[in-house]
Design brief:
The chain is α+β, with helices and mostly antiparallel strands and 211 residues long. It is built from three helices and four strands; from the N terminus they run βαβββαα.
Length: 211
């Protein structure tokens, strides 16, 4: 069997005598009445008409009251439950908010990826430019070094050639001097030991005169 819930205002009283006191009721209508012993009933209350500007007496009683005793059923506090439509609306709102959060995250992710791609492109471009600049500098340095090496080689060759010429001249000079200073043989094949060519010539010339 299907169950339904009825929402009514609640009035708590200490005794049946208080049930008829008008001060416990806010206005005409139907109420859930809860007594101290836990008994529950539903009461239909009718207050006496009140002129405009008048106030009710503390001892005033109801004009009419009809009560239906229920017993001691389990009462549900409206604060502890919500209508199905409210739950469905809350569920729809949750899914809508979740969808929006996912879309925002996706947009943020795409924006971040685009920014990263742009930064990567800038870095790669800058790196390529640096590498090209370094390659150009290295090529220029290579050309400069080769030129310096050529100049040094030419200078060394010139220095070596001049030194070789000096050594050759010095060799020829010493060779001639040695030839002049080396002892020679007489016609008979005898050595004139320890004499220079000049001394030998003088010696031979003296002997010729003596003979």
């Amino acid at each position: 069997m299907k169950e339904m819930m009825l929402r009514l205002p609640v009035v708590e009283i200490s005794s049946s005598d208080d049930l008829w006191m008008a001060k416990h009721w806010e206005k005409n209508g139907r109420y859930i009445v809860i007594r101290e012993n836990g008994d529950v009933s539903v009461a239909d209350v009718r207050l006496k008409p009140l002129a405009i500007g008048d106030a009710r007496n503390e001892e005033e009683q109801l004009d009419n009251l009809s009560e239906c005793f229920i017993g001691q059923p389990d009462l549900l506090d409206p604060n502890d439950w919500a209508p199905a439509i409210d739950l469905e609306n809350a569920k729809l709102a949750y899914h809508s908010e979740l969808k929006k959060v996912k879309e925002d995250l996706q947009q943020e992710r795409e924006g971040h990826e685009a920014e990263m791609a742009e930064q990567k492109y800038k870095c790669e471009t800058a790196l390529a430019e640096k590498e090209e600049h370094c390659a150009t500098l290295l090529a220029e340095k290579d050309i400069e070094c080769e030129h310096r090496i050529d100049v040094i080689n030419k200078t060394n060759e010139q220095t070596l050639t001049m030194r070789r010429m000096e050594l050759e001249q010095e060799y020829e000079k010493k060779k001639l001097q040695l030839e002049l200073e080396t002892p020679k043989r007489f016609a008979q094949g005898e050595w004139v030991s320890g004499k220079t060519l000049t001394e030998i010539i003088k010696t031979l010339a003296g002997k010729i005169k003596e003979g």
